[in-house]
Amino acid sequence: MHANAIATSIDKGEGAGEACLAVTFTGTARDYFRIWLVNLCLSLATLGVFSAWAKVRKQRYFHSHTLLDGVPFQYLGRPFAILQGRVVAATFLLAYSLLSYIAPEVAPFMLAAAVVAAPWVILRSAAFAAHFRAHRNVRFQFKSDYLVAVATLYWLGAIPVLVTGSLFEWWGQDLLMLAVSGVSAMLFPLWWWRLKRFLLANLSYGGVAVSFEVRAWPFYRVYLQGMAMMLPCAAASVGVGFFLQDAHEALAMVSLLPMGLGYVLMTAHVEAQSGNLLWNHCRLGPVRVQATLRTWKLAQLYVTNSAAILVSCGLLLPWAVIRMKRYRASCLTVTVDGDLARLRGTEHTRVAAAGAEISEAFQLDMAL
Prior knowledge:
10 strands; alpha+beta; 12 helices; single chain; disordered N terminus; disordered C terminus; 58% helix
């Protein structure tokens, strides 16, 4: 589910009172398997060119089978715009790789250029993602500016410092790089919260802006809890590895199992609880969302889905994707309170009958 599921344009009328709207996902593994297989074969046959069209086919299927009160969402993205974004990204990566090999002294400057361009990329990606998603023929919108994106992405300057260190060959200063990296890791939950707040607070639907009301500390608590789940498992891996240090290499690999379990639990906990925080503290006018993702259920899905994909050599990937989307949808409840007429949208936000046209120049899908 995307952040756009917090919105609805159901016209209840004045004084309709509070109503709960069901969020359901009706996709099936059989139908999605056909889409996935065709996408995979054609993407391979065209050396990746068809991947832009594959993304549109996949997103249209997921959106059309995600229903809010029985009404599906709409994905209106254009394959050519997606392809343009991917060509730009691939060109930069290829140029960076070649220059790193041919002229290593130039590569750090390209990295610095990437730091300057990154906020613009985030803005364009967010604007694209919002502009081409709709519900009841009303588009979502994302509006912000470059300087706000810079202040959000490079808060306290940790990332620019790391890039500058590469530019001036500070990597030899191990203590300096260790200190900067350590501080960056400690501030990551706060940075992540600021980024999510930036992306949500500038999102709107039907002329109404999303409000995001939660402090950073709850996200710190979630990450600390995840680390607390990981540490005992890491200690267990070290202990098992110590006793099996003289064993055969294949048997010694058993020591990694507790570490893997801890990583799954930590990831599931952070994703479930941070997701609940985001959903439960977002509001779109009279619309509220209640999320009830659970750590253990998500971890169970991770383990069983991964095992199924591994045993089937990847053929059960569509089945795993559908299971995950169905579970996420089942954990969402949308509550509407009061008059929803203001969410009907304006002429600017309504979907044109001729199709979805990009309203701004260079609005590319830069998210790979």
